[in-house]
Design brief:
It is built from seven helices and no strands. With 155 residues, the chain is mainly alpha-helical. Helix 2 runs antiparallel to helix 3, helix 2 runs parallel beside helix 4 and helix 4 runs antiparallel to helix 7. The protein is elongated, with a radius of gyration of 21 Å.
């Protein structure tokens, strides 16, 4: 029998296969904690956003886990930071849509005949602009960090 047929050999081959198929690198504890923090930050923000739909905890768990995985699978520490910032920027950018959906959902459950004037008001337009500017600023910081301190290609 070869070493590859033992449980340890099978585990080593499986780990090697997973690492070759993904961008997972062996990060240190500080980078792992940073990825967890950024993923949970995005999860917490999304859970606050969907609180009107009574799915706060599932959203926190699912989005947080996806955020952690997306951050941790990045090859460098700076890529972890920029991925987390891009995720947060995307979550902030869709916030006005989710808030408007919450308003429509609340109007539907209370039996309001025509909720569209409330949802399509100047206040909602202002919210879209404010959240769009905030999301753009965060994405701009992430882009700056990505281009300034990102991985350098070598030939």
């Amino acid at each position: 029998m070869s070493d590859d047929s033992t449980p340890a050999g099978i585990t080593a081959r499986l780990r090697s296969h997973i690492h070759s198929r993904t961008a997972i690198t062996d990060h240190g504890y500080s980078t792992m904690l940073l990825a967890i923090f950024l993923g949970l930050l995005v999860g917490a923000y999304c859970s606050w956003t969907v609180a009107d739909f009574s799915v706060r905890w599932p959203a926190f768990g699912i989005v947080g886990l996806i955020g952690i995985i997306r951050c941790y699978t990045q090859p460098t520490r700076m890529a972890v930071v920029t991925t987390g910032l891009y995720q947060l920027s995307a979550a902030i950018a869709i916030t006005p849509l989710v808030l408007a959906g919450g308003g429509l959902y609340g109007a539907y459950t209370q039996g309001v005949a025509n909720p569209w004037p409330t949802v399509l008001s100047e206040a909602i337009l202002l919210v879209v602009i404010v959240f769009g500017v905030i999301a753009t600023l965060i994405a701009g910081v992430a882009s700056f960090l990505d281009h300034r301190y990102g991985p350098v290609e070598t030939k």
